[in-house]
What does this fold into?
Amino acid sequence: MDWHGMAFDSKAKRYIIACHVLWRELCYYAATAPYIYQFRFLKQGLHCVPDVLRSELQSAIDAVEVEHAGGSRDGVQERVDAILIGYGLCSNGIVGVQARTLPLVVMRGHDCITFLLGSKERYREYFDSHPGTYWYSPSWIDTSTQPSKERYERVLKYYTETYGEENAQYLMEASENWMTSYSNAAYVDLGVGDSERYKAYTRDCAEWLHWNTEFLKGEPELVRRFLEGPWDDEDFLVVQPGQTIVPSHDERVITVEGT
It folds into this structure.
């Protein structure tokens, strides 16, 4: 099948398996796209343990393929074009994931922020010029507790109640010290949701942490092409049945091995 110039088929269905941090953006743009989509969002944070992300993602892919192995559901014929994978490389968490009977479509990028910025090139440019950046976005704010006064006080309260006040201070230094590696809060969105509220939250977090704050306008074209195609080789990897995702160790980010 020609994935670059595939004609529109209104009866085609596409599955999206993605991290929950993209739920607002993917649902919003899918609602304006011509295809039929079915979603499965995996919980935020799986990238922290790449082996768990790999296992959870592969299990979700396998479940979709088993469900539609016969091409029909409730007696109604269905054709599934592809499974769209809403992850980047994500700490190598997608390395080793296999396509078995359906092609997988994966964005070439290191993490979900590439989706929001619109290209891996823009991500790299910002990353190189703004070291120590922590990213904020609507879905990130919604699905996790960002570095903030709120987070600090909640963790401290838990440690104090569980281990006592003296031990709590030690545990806070050990567990929250990673935040000292950052100095810049960058907020990016695609115009989905209450942007002003999310920006204010980001600003408050950054002020408490003594970080700089920058607001970036997202570019939705990459998300649209992820959902609708065409899936050009520059920005997307189409993993054919029998192939496995591996890192490319170059500007392509990911590639495949197998037949």
Notes: The chain is about 40% helix and 25% strand. The chain has two domains: 12-114+220-258, 117-217. The first helix runs from residue 23 to 31.
